[in-house]
Design a protein that fits this description.
alpha+beta
């Protein structure tokens, strides 16, 4: 809860004598961004506030119960969702405990949600949404049902919707239980455990299912939506359901059609038992064996509703018989797997429970579908990354080299690239580049530039000539891409214009040629086109620039590039980096401010190429506590 700012104003009751006038109430407030994460943050905030008041023994908090907490969380979720969807501004949330005054029967919990779009309409009637659109809440009928009173207050520039919930006095004593604040705080973000009652209450207290189901589903959605591994989704599903709604749970996952081997898995082609969970861990292996031996078979046409299935085998030890239900996990009209639950010693599940688990299974299916999409994208990115970078760095006679490459998007294609290759007999070339943009657009440019570099170098072109021709190739390619985009827009009637820069082919490049000399050492010819300048470190610790700045590639049609030539003698080290190093930020400062990179490089005197690259990388990471916000590439070449 440390990430949610809480401002506390708490006053304890000084006296309980007749005629006592209550003092200022216990109040907490916070500001939430107007985005889809706000409802989840609001629910956690209210949970923490109630637990905090109970732990501090605020007098009015004595009447807080689990039921009141569930109602408060559900109510704030609805109000914040309304504000985010229909206003889209920053949301202000106030949670206040009012002590009962004279003439009042009980204390009151007040929740107020304000937005900065006072002209917006307050959502009161649920409207049908097309498939694939997010759920926008249940309307203010839900607020009216849960609260003792509610209303709307207009202030200058804001609109506030508030609701009052009775604390303690409006509920029969035998139906209430003290709010377990200590346990709630210890559990932290495991909100599903706070929301769901114990198993003994689920079978008998259908009122919780009716009143707390939406809160449970909302919190479950938060937990599932942040997972990008389908096996982890299956594991979370089991832990959320057991033991709250079932004694055991199993999840089968269907392999995707394009990768499903015929006859794989148990029961049906391309199906595997991904997760088994039981209230007793000692029974999990036995249950798994029973389920693998006789998996449930569901009709092809079955929907997402509950389907009774046979109790597995003889049942896990101690579970002679019971009721088992299977739910097909469906998303986008495609079957993704099967969820099976069981409860020992029951003839049937309550209708309220089966409906709740059906809603839960839909969220599990959506989470699995999202995880698979993410995994497909990650696989594509990894394949692209392997194709865009060299599989190995060429060994250059008389030199040692070392490369550090860290894309910002781990596992995905970055905008930086490098290459070290042999261009002909006695000639080696190296390149370090940075493409404008990231992701697929950058991958397209790298996929063009790196093969062109190798081709031009092996055709015998000099360093400056390679940059001249690469610049023209990038401009020609950008023109063709722009013409193709214009044709598409024309066919579409002028709609869907591509964003600015979508067809840009801007590239900063450091490119050089190395030729070993007969008398020892290496002759280096180098040119920098809009790239951080290379630095040369001599054995005595002196650092100087090894090239002059020139124009970025892909910008000007008639640009002419120049190269510089120098000799690398034993112990001389050449450092080439991308702007992920030089522009690494810590507040308003950058790593290369006041020649910071040169100073860092000078401290590497006497180190070999591998240690130089590693030290520069560590110094860049240590420059700021925040993770890097750009790709990082370092190439070190050292004469022997």
């Amino acid at each position: 809860m440390g990430s949610i700012p809480m401002q506390r104003e708490t006053t304890f009751r000084a006296s309980a004598q007749p005629g006592y006038q209550p003092g200022p109430p216990a109040v907490v407030c916070t500001s939430l961004p107007g985005n889809p994460m706000a409802p989840a943050a609001a629910r956690r905030f209210v949970r923490a506030a109630l637990a905090d008041w109970t732990e501090l023994e605020v007098p009015a908090a004595a009447g807080i119960t689990d039921r009141l907490a569930d109602d408060a969380v559900l109510l704030v979720s609805e109000l914040v969702t309304n504000a985010v969807v229909h206003a889209g501004t920053t949301v202000e949330l106030v949670c206040r405990l009012d002590e009962a005054g004279l003439g009042e029967s009980c204390d009151t919990l007040v929740i107020e949600v304000s937005d900065h779009h006072p002209a917006r309409a307050v959502r009161s009637e649920p409207t049908p949404q097309p498939p694939g659109t997010p759920e926008y809440g249940r309307g203010l009928q839900l607020v009216a049902t849960l609260s003792d009173s509610w209303g709307i207050t207009y202030r200058t520039g804001t609109k506030a919707v508030w609701a009052r919930l009775p604390v303690g006095g409006g509920q029969a004593v035998q139906e209430t239980e003290p709010y377990a604040s200590e346990q709630a705080m210890q559990r932290g973000l495991r909100t599903a455990e706070i929301l769901a009652p114990l198993p003994r209450r689920v079978t008998h207290d259908t009122e919780w299912v009716n009143r707390g189901a939406l809160t449970f589903l909302a919190e479950a959605s938060d937990l599932l939506a942040g997972q990008f591994d389908e096996d982890l989704v299956a594991a979370l599903a089991g832990q959320l359901l057991v033991p709250r709604l079932a004694d055991w749970c199993a999840v089968w996952l269907d392999d995707e059609p394009e990768v499903a081997p015929r006859g794989a898995g148990n029961g049906s082609p391309g199906t595997r038992l991904a997760r088994v969970w039981h209230t007793s861990e000692l029974r999990i292996d036995e249950l798994r064996r029973s389920l693998e031996k006789d998996p449930p078979l569901l009709p092809e046409a079955v929907g997402s509703g509950a389907v009774p299935v046979p109790w597995p085998g003889e049942g896990p030890a101690g579970d002679a018989t019971g009721t088992a239900l299977a739910y097909r996990l469906m998303a986008g009209g495609r079957a993704l797997g099967t969820l099976v639950i069981g409860r020992a010693g029951m003839m049937r599940f309550a209708d309220e429970v089966t409906g709740l688990i059906e809603d839960f299974s839909r969220r599990v299916a959506l989470a699995i579908s999202a995880a698979r999409r993410y995994q497909r994208q990650a696989t594509i990115s990894q394949v692209l990354q392997r194709g865009l970078l060299p599989s190995s760095v060429a060994e250059i006679p008389g030199m040692h080299s070392s490369v550090v490459y860290e894309p910002r998007d781990k596992g995905g294609p970055g905008g930086d690239f490098y290459d070290v290759f042999q261009a002909g007999k006695g000639r080696w070339c190296f390149a370090l580049g940075d493409v404008q943009g990231k992701g697929v657009e950058a991958a397209v440019v790298i996929g063009l530039a790196r093969p062109w570099l190798r081709l031009l170098a092996r055709e015998g072109y000099e360093v400056a000539e390679v940059l001249d021709r690469l610049n023209q190739l990038l401009l020609d390619d950008a023109t063709e891409a722009a013409d193709a985009a214009a044709a598409v827009v024309a066919v579409a009637g002028g709609q869907g214009l591509p964003p600015d820069g979508a067809t840009s082919r801007f590239l900063s490049l450091l490119y050089g040629e190395l030729v070993p000399m007969d008398d020892g050492g290496v002759r280096c010819t180098i040119a920098s086109a809009g790239h951080p300048l290379p630095l040369l470190l001599s054995p005595d610790g002196k650092v100087r620039s090894a090239a002059e700045p020139q124009l970025l590639l892909g910008v000007v049609d008639d640009a002419t590039y120049m190269s510089e030539t120098f000799e690398l003698r034993t112990g001389d080290t050449l450092l080439c980096v991308t702007d992920g190093v030089t522009e690494r930020r810590a507040g308003r400062h950058m790593f290369d401010d006041a020649d910071g990179l040169a100073a860092a490089f000078a401290s590497c005197a006497g180190l070999d190429a591998n240690l130089v690259a590693e030290r520069i990388k560590r110094m860049v990471h240590a420059f700021s506590e925040r993770p890097p916000d750009d790709d990082l590439a370092v190439l070190v070449l050292q004469a022997q």
